[in-house]
Fold this sequence. Notes:
Layout: E1 2-11, E2 16-25, E3 32-39, E4 43-50, H1 58-61, E5 68-74, E6 79-81, E7 83-86, E8 89-93, E9 103-109, E10 114-117, E11 122-123, E12 127-136, E13 139-147, E14 154-166, E15 173-175, H2 187-190, E16 191-193, E17 202-208, E18 213-216, E19 224-233, E20 243-252, H3 255-268, E21 286-288, E22 296-297, E23 302-303, E24 305-312, H4 340-343, E25 347-352, E26 362-366, H5 367-370
Parallel strand pairs: 3-22, 3-23, 11-23
Antiparallel strand pairs: 1-2, 3-4, 4-8, 5-6, 5-9, 7-8, 9-10, 10-21, 12-13, 13-19, 14-17, 14-18, 14-20, 15-16, 20-24, 25-26
Amino acid sequence: MKRLLPILLLFSMSACIYPFDIQKEEGEHMNLVVSGDILIGETSRITLGYVYPVGSPVGAMRKEFPMGTLTLEGDGGFSCKGEYQYRGVYSFDTSTAPANQRYRLNIRLLDGQEYASEWLGVYQAPAVSDLRAEPADNGLQLFISLDGADSLWNFRWDYTETWEYHADFVPVLMFVPGLPDGDNEDPGKIYRERYPEEDYYYCWTSRQSVEPGLASAEGQSGNRIKDRLMMTIPYTDPRISTLYCIDVTASGLSPGGRAYLQHLHDISNNTGSLFSPTPSEMPGNIRCLSDPAQVALGYLNAVQRTTSRLFVPPTYYKRGYDPEALLFYPAPDEDGRYNFDQVFVNDSPVRFSGEAPTRENVAWAPKRCVDCRASGGTKNKPEWWPNSHK
């Protein structure tokens, strides 16, 4: 009886995740999943994983990973053993690996199985000839243009987004929770001035692309990609509210590597045909030497990469709400008590009218309006960030 088994392919260059189903006979050995690329001139990371049965607990899948010895071999004498890091990830020092050699990955698992990739020539890095943002009706659009090196016709890019944003208000008061009865409604005790170190106005957030961008110039007169749309950011998106940065990493791909990644993309986004091959039927470039009947899923490339950075100011940002409309004044309960401690669970004081705070004149707002960390950011400003906010 056939069962559907979900697997996760983790491509270490972009930390992208592709979920999909494959047909597998019950009781068969779990397939090996190999992901990553050989990165010439920098550290390479290769991830090993398994195909798991439907219904397998996530915790169990995170505990069991293929273990063994991984070696990168060059046909000109280069050799480098992988160092195990965590959760199936092996790192290789390929910072000095010559670009004029061919490479392959050899895998010897503790269960005795041996795998090897095909011999891979190194694809030179493309040039990022343009990286820019342009306004459009549906939001701010980011475009990339790439020029291929030598005979490079297939391209991949990944990116890291970093953005600075701020809270809606800088509160002039801080609330002191947990006071004893008799003090917990006294404005002179429950409110205090904000300390300088309690500046939660500016925050930073970073995230990586989920899956790689792919493009091919095959069939064109020149090996270049011009004005390829990377993403569209709505004008109301907080990412572009203060200062936004995107760091793009681009590399070349073999035709087979691009086809493999495109196939996974189509399946994970439900755009594949009903008659498309399952991932287990899509030919990779890793073979089991000890047992040809075993299937290894994955496709490696040996590449050099290039990077480019773009900053986007808040020129086009449009706040999608009015923060003043979110302010409110806590009301007493049926017994006339204010229960400020309960209000403080989700909200924070912002400002007061008059000469001193009272129980009735302090305006409150949701915590996210006064503490930027409530929206998932941190106070850890990147060292390279151009703004001087602390």
